[in-house]
From TrEMBL:
It comes from Colletotrichum zoysiae. The keyword Transmembrane helix does not apply. The keyword Magnesium does not apply. This is Alternative oxidase. It holds the Pfam family O-FucT.
Length: 377
């Protein structure tokens, strides 16, 4: 068995809505390919890894398939969604279904070392129910494709700059911490860039209304268990991740006098780190934001964004060992006084909320893939 590493379609620098370009680059554009290869070689020693440009004329190419629909395994498709968003309900059917599919296609002759075949898998982003695997696996699986070192170093530099300038607590939240550190920062993913508005995602108004409501609830409620998930608003630093400068400026105005910072503030122009950051592309800079937001005391994102979902689910898995979406029942702290997560108690403008993160929704009216079930944390 072998795998051919994929390539990344580099986003059009002049139009961020154009992300499916013909400008294909290697994985090292965003991730640490050496780390990926090393881990695959260590834990899957019999798996042959081919580079993206690998070609072998003796290998018969069978085309591109849907790993769910073309193999006819049991699945659930949310009403109104395209077929490629079907999620397997019995993933254990996959190996046998693959054997049957190959047998039919090859006239009953299985592949062999002398008769090799290859095929591509289509639309796999939402095609695996992560709760099928053990929580310990789910918590760490995405670390196979961690950001490359220069991105990690810039994120670390920005965090240290925040700590030095504002006395901010920048350590990860831990499961033994019942409430957020009073000096932690609030991380916000403000998704109002051109592509988001073109696709009619949640508006700035929807996002800021939720943010300001949570801030108002936190102010003066330091002992209220329902509202003390956020850091102390009197000392709060808000870190905003967004590619839209007017949106950031408007948010800073709307939450004043709370201090709002971005990666560009923490890594200023003219410094070595600032120069390195500004030489990065839009997507590379987004990974810097992602690593910084992982350290936030509380995170608020938007339900339309897989970036936001990844962060909310990663934090839930790392601290509360929650994977695959909300548990069947509400879960509370040991004293049964603090809501750590409960789907039935979500507000109309919440798509996710626990003691670590919240994702802004809009009346649950938009048909979405089941992000909470299929995005690796």
């Amino acid at each position: 068995v072998s795998i051919k590493l994929p390539t990344i379609s580099r986003r059009n620098a002049n139009d961020i809505t154009d992300f499916e370009t013909s400008d294909h680059v290697g994985l090292n554009y965003l991730i640490d390919e050496h780390h990926l290869r090393t881990n695959l070689n260590t834990h899957c020693p019999n798996l042959v890894i081919h580079p993206a440009d690998y070609k072998d004329s003796s290998v018969r190419y069978l085309g591109e398939i849907s790993p769910v629909l073309d193999l006819h395994i049991d699945n659930y498709l949310q009403k109104g969604m395209p077929g490629d968003f079907a999620v397997p309900t019995a993933p254990e059917q996959w190996p046998l279904a693959m054997d049957i599919w190959l047998e039919k296609l090859l006239g009953g002759k299985p592949p062999s070392a002398m008769s090799q075949v290859a095929f591509s898998l289509r639309a796999i982003m939402f095609a695996w129910p992560i709760s099928y695997d053990r929580p310990s696996t789910v918590r760490h699986f995405s670390e196979l494709v961690r950001p490359k070192d220069d991105i990690k170093l810039l994120a670390a530099s920005a965090l240290l700059s925040m700590q030095k300038q504002y006395g901010t607590h920048i350590d990860f939240r831990k499961s033994k911490e019942p409430i957020v550190n009073k000096d932690a920062f609030l991380g916000i993913h403000l998704r109002v860039e051109k592509d988001a508005t073109d696709f009619h995602w949640l508006s700035y108004e929807d996002q800021i209304n939720y943010i300001t409501r949570r801030l108002q609830e936190r102010n003066g409620n330091s002992t209220d268990a329902l509202h003390n998930d956020l850091p102390d608003s009197d000392k709060m630093i808000i870190y905003v991740a967004s590619g839209d400068q007017p949106g950031i400026a408007k948010l800073a105005e709307d939450v004043a006098p709370i201090t709002v910072v971005t990666k560009h503030d923490l890594l200023p122009e003219g410094t070595l780190d600032g120069i390195s950051l500004r030489n990065m592309t839009w997507d590379q800079q987004a990974l810097v934001d992602m690593l910084i937001l992982e350290h936030s005391g509380y995170f608020i994102g938007v339900r339309d964004s897989t970036f936001s979902w990844h962060l909310a689910l990663r934090r839930a898995a790392a601290v509360n060992w929650v994977v695959g979406g909300f548990p069947e029942n509400c879960w509370l702290d040991n004293k049964k006084t603090q809501r750590s997560g409960c789907k039935s108690l979500l507000a109309e403008n919440e798509e996710w909320r626990d003691n670590l993160s919240a994702l802004v929704g809009n009346g649950h009216i938009r048909v979405e893939p089941q992000c909470a079930r299929v995005i690796w944390p």
